[in-house]
Amino acid sequence: MAGGPLTDLSIAEARDGLKAGRFTSKELVEAYLSVMEAARALNAFVTETPERALAGAEEADRRLAAGEGRALEGVPLAIKDLFCTEGVMTTACSRILDGFTPPYESTVSQKLWDAGAVMLGKTNLDEFAMGSSNTTSHFGPVENPWRRARDNRPLVPGGSSGGSAAAVAARLCPGATGTDTGGSIRQPASFCGVVGLKPTYGRCSRWGIVAFASSLDQAGPITRTVRDSAILLTHMSGFDPKDSTSVERPVPDFETAVGRSVKGLKVGVPKEYRVEGMDPEIEALWQKGIEYLTDAGMEVKEISLPHTEYALPVYYILAPAEASSNLARYDGVRFGHRAEGGGDLLDMYEATRSEGFGAEVRRRIMIGTYVLSAGYYDAYYLKAQKVRTLIGRDFEAAFADVDVILTPTAPGAAFAIGEKEDDPISMYLNDVFTVPASLAGLPGISVPAGLDGDGLPLGLQLIGKPFDEETVIAAAGVIEARAGFDGSPAARGGGGA
C-alpha cells in the first residue's frame, strides 16, 4: 500500500480504509499475522488465533461488500488473556488455569465482536494481573520492543497489560484490550510509548474477566492514538445486568471528543505528586505538559491531594485482600491444573495451589489472607477502606475547582528484565502515580509525550471526573498533538535495530 505497510495504520485509518475498499480485511489480517510470526521473540501473545482471524476477516469482507459493515468491521484486535473468550484458551497467564477453555465470552470482547472486530489472539500478562513488569507470567516475560540507545538488554513492557502494550507498540495489532487495577493499562502504555485509557469504574462490564481485585479492576483500550482509544472505548462500554458493579448510563461517542476545544477549562497539578528524588526528566516532561495545555487555553491551578502518600499502602492492603478471596476458587476440582499424587482432598488443594500459583500471586494471597484474618481485619483492612474514602474525597474537593488533573504516568522509563526482580517494594513503586485514581474509581489516560536520555518513551497522565472520559480524551488529544510523539521502537521482534 502506498505510504507504508498496512500494519502502520491506526484503527481509525484501518476502519476508514476498509469502508472505502482500499484494501480488504483479509489483507489487513494477513499482514498482522505475518508480523506476529516474525516477532514471537517478544512473547507478546500467549495464544494466536490465525484461523479464527482469517474466518472473521472473510465474513467482514462479505459484509463490507454487501454494504452491511458495522462500526469496527474487519478491524483486527488483540485480547488480553484475562478476558474469557469462548472456545479459545483463557489462562490469566497462570499455571493453575492452563488449558481452561471458557464456554462463554466476556461482555467487553463480545461487544467488540458485535461491532465487527476480528481477534488475532490473546496477549501475555503478569499472572492474574499481579505485577507492573510482565515478568510473572507462567508463559515467561514479555519483552518491550523498545531498547535503550546504548544498551541492548531486553526491557520490561510494564504490567500487567504488558503483552497488549508491547503488541501495539511493535505493530503486531492496531489495538488491544487491557485491564487496570492499580495502573495496569496506563503504566505499560507509558513504558511502550502508546496510549492507555482506564475508564471510570463501572463504565465497562467486568463480567467474564478473570477477577483480581473486584472493587478496582476495570477494562480499557491500549492503542497508538488517543482517537483509537476513544473509538474502542465507545464499543467496550455499556451497562451489563450480569455485572453488579456496572453503571447504567448512556455511552457517548467518545471519538467526537478528540479535537474538541479545551479553552477555558482548568487543569490541576497536585503538589503531592512532586515526590522527593523525582527524576529530573519526568519533572521536565510534566512541565512541558503544563505548557501544552496552557497554550491550548487551559488555566493551571496547583491543587492538593493530601492523602496521596497513603495510596500505595492502602492499595497493597485492599488489592491482596480481594485477591485472596477471588483466588480461593482455584482449587483443581472443576477446571485448570490439578496436582497429581495421593492424599486426601485437603492435600490436593494444597498441592494444586502450591504448584499452580507463581511466587508473586502466592505473596499477595498471603498478604491478603493476613490482613483479613481475625485480629488484623480492623487494624489493616478496615482502616485501609477508611483511608480509601479520604483519598476519594481529596479528588472530589479538587474537582470542585478543576476539570482535569495532570501528572506523570510513571516515576521513570522501562527498566531491564530482572533489574528489580528481588525488590518487590521498588516494583510496587512503579504504580505510585496511577494507584490513587484507581482507588477513587476515576478515569485516567496515559499519553506518550517524550523520550528520556536513553531514547525510551515517557508518558503523561490525565485524570478526570467520574464518567467524564470526554474531557480527559479532549485534553489528551491536545498533549498528543503538541508533543508530536512519533517515535517507534528502536528494535522490533526482540532484537536488531
What's the short version?
The protein is an alpha/beta fold and 497 residues long. It is built from 15 helices and 11 strands.
Keywords:
alpha/beta, 15 helices, 497 residues, eight-stranded mixed β-sheet, three-stranded mixed β-sheet, Amidase signature (AS) enzymes, globular
Summarize the structure in words.
With 497 residues, the protein is of the alpha/beta class. The chain has a single domain (7-497), classed as Amidase signature (AS) domain (Amidase signature (AS) enzymes, Alpha-Beta Complex), CATH 3.90.1300.10. 36% of the residues lie in helices and 12% in strands. The strands form 2 sheets. It has an 8-stranded mixed β-sheet with strand order 4-6-5-10-11-9-7-8, sandwiched between helices. A hairpin with a 5-residue loop joins strand 10 (444-451) and strand 11 (457-464). The longest helix has 22 residues, at 377-398. It is globular, with a radius of gyration of 21 Å.
Topology:
Elements: H1 11-20, H2 25-38, E1 45-48, H3 50-65, E2 76-80, H4 107-114, E3 118-123, H5 162-169, E4 175-180, H6 186-192, E5 195-198, E6 218-223, H7 226-236, E7 266-270, H8 280-295, E8 299-303, H9 311-326, H10 345-356, H11 359-372, H12 377-398, E9 404-408, H13 424-428, H14 435-440, E10 444-451, E11 457-464, H15 469-483
Parallel strand pairs: 2-3, 7-8, 7-9
Antiparallel strand pairs: 1-3, 4-6, 5-6, 5-10, 9-11, 10-11
